[in-house]
Structure formats: structure tokens, C-alpha cells
Amino acid sequence: MKRPFKNGLVRVASALLFGAMIAGTFTGCGGSKESAGSNTIKITNVSYDPTRELYEEYNKAFVKYYKEEKGKDVEITQSHGGSGGQARSVVEGADADVVTLALAHDITLIEEAGLIEPKWIDEFDLDSSPYTSTIVFLVRKGNEKGLNDWDDLIKDGVEIITPDPKSSGGACWNFLAAWHYADLKFGGDEAKIKDFVKSIYDNVTVMDSGARGATTTFVENGQGDVLLAWENEAIATVTEYPDEYEIISPSVSILAQPSVAIVDENAKKNGTEEVSKDYLEYLYSEDAQRIIGKNGYRPSNEAVLKEFADKFDLNMNLTNINEFGGWDKAYEDFFKDGAIFDEIHQK
């Protein structure tokens, strides 16, 4: 693809974007991340799979903003992978100053390890969620198998691509969107809901560890009939290949709220608390919100969102995580070892 689905870390120094580095590799030591003899401050943003292009562009804007406002250069390292795996990497020692992950529960895991202060979700506006997304179907042009809603995914011969909820935040949103549809369809009958969702996952032919890997499997490797996709991934693919793919909005989906937080212990150790807070707060600025919309995420600023009304299906019927009791309960019910996902996905 012209829009590369690449792995790794990307450094942004001043206004320059450097090449990719190996994913999961970090350098850092105690004390300030301010380069000796210079005004350059270094921070690391550990994020999830599909945000590479968003943060490449956002980082350039933030670097310019911070130089103008504070008179200092900032060098930003990006790390991308499945959201759950990224959270575990921080718990295990990755030197993240901030995390921008796919779901709140992944940040809660870091909090429980003592690296993020309690009530982090209240530190920034809108539950520390500066942008939202949803889950859509990405199909090949013409949609020959007529995959228009969740019912169609259980048909014989349908091949589905979706990442693994054990490692991917986007995959958790996929699962919950399907579950909510079945809940409505069967009036809360859990046995029928489980059978329905199991039928969907019985048709999954490839389950990658992250959302970007799933997109690569579907788009670059040509596997599957339908990709359960982040809206932004689907938009990017259709923009790149307008004659090859199309987006299907199912009748019911879910409002996905990626979350952001300062990794307080690391930021204190690195002397980057101020710049880390500014980095996440700037996501709510109008300029940043437009970058967010341009990259296929839904801006949290309603006025800016309206500027991108032609990009998103704003009439979709979206449930939200509160319908599942919040992320901690949803994780316990569906995704912990031995929970509902494991129960229905045994083959």
C-alpha cells in the first residue's frame, strides 16, 4: 500500500520525522530526558496499532506548538502494537511517559502496577478520551457476499478477519459490538447470544495480535471476505483503494473510546511531567482535533466533528461501554482467562 502498514518506533525531533525503529525497544535512564547541552526534551508515547499515522502528524504539530509556547524542542518516540500487549510492556518496564491506548482497561492494568495514579480517567476531559471511533465492516468492492449486518457474518462460507481480544483493544470492541447486536436480537437470552457470537467467531479464519496486523492480512495479503475494523482503518483503506474496498456500517455498533494517560512514575523519574501533560492536553486543541478528524478518528470537539460529517456515518446506532458495566466489569465478564470469549472460542 502507499500508506505503509509498518511496525516500529518513529522518532520526531523538532520538525523532522525520522525512520522507523524496532518496535518495543526503548532507551532511558533515571533523571530528566533532557539531552545534555541542549534544550531538547525526550518523551515516549506507547500507543496501539492503528494510530501510527495519527501520531506521526500530531507529533509534528505538537513539536511546533511546544517550541513556540515553551521555547524548547521535543523529541517524541512512538511505539505501536496490540493495545493489551503495549500495556503489558509498560508494566514490564517499557519507559513510556504517556500511553494512548485502545481502551481504558489497558490503562487500568498499568495503574494497578503502581505506575499511574488513581483517578487518571478524570485528569483530562471526557474521561481522558480526546477522540472516539467505532467498529465497521470493510469488504471488497461489490460486497459479493452481501455482508450488511452481523447476521450475515454467520453464513456458511463467510471468512472473517479480526484481531485477538487477548492482545488487541480493537478486537475487544469488535466482540462487544457483536454481543450487543445479539443481545438486542435475542432479548437478553444469554444462551442464544453466546451461540450467535460463537457462530461469528467460528467463521474467523485469521486472528492477528493487533488491528493493524488484521488490516494487513485483509488488504495486503488478500485473505478473508470481511474485516471487522476500526473505522479509521477502514476509511484509510477506502481512501487509498476507492475501487477495491467499501465500508459497511452495521445496524448496531459501539462507541469506542480510546484513552490517554500520563505514566506518572516514569514521568516523575524522567523529569517529563510538564511536557507529558501538555502533550496530552494539546490533543483537545482545535488544531489537533482537525488532525484527528483528518486521520479518520472522530473528534471529541462537536464543532470540529461536524466539519468531518462527510467522513463518518454519524447516524449509526452506537452502544457504549457503560452498557456492559464499564471496562473493568466487561473485561472480567468477557476477556479474562476462562471468561466468555474463551468459552465460545474453543475449537
How would you describe this structure to a colleague?
The strands form four sheets. The chain has a six-stranded mixed beta sheet with strand order 2-1-4-3-5-13. A five-stranded mixed beta sheet has the order 9-8-10-7-11. Strands 6-14 form a two-stranded antiparallel sheet. It has 14 helices and 15 strands. Helix 2 (83-91) runs parallel beside helix 3 (104-112) and helix 5 (169-185) crosses helix 6 (190-202). The protein is globular and about 60 Å long. 39% of the residues lie in helices and 19% in strands. The chain has helices at residues 52-70, 83-91, 104-112, 125-128, 169-185, 190-202, 211-219, 231-240, 264-270, 273-281, 286-294, 302-307, 327-335, 340-344, and strands at 9-13, 16-21, 41-48, 74-81, 98-101, 131-132, 135-140, 160-161, 204-206, 226-230, 245-248, 252-254, 259-262, 298-299, 317-319. The protein is α/β, with parallel strands linked by helices. The protein folds into two domains: 9-132 and 258-307, D-Maltodextrin-Binding Protein, domain 2 (3-Layer(aba) Sandwich), CATH 3.40.190; 135-255 and 316-344, D-Maltodextrin-Binding Protein, domain 2, CATH 3.40.190.
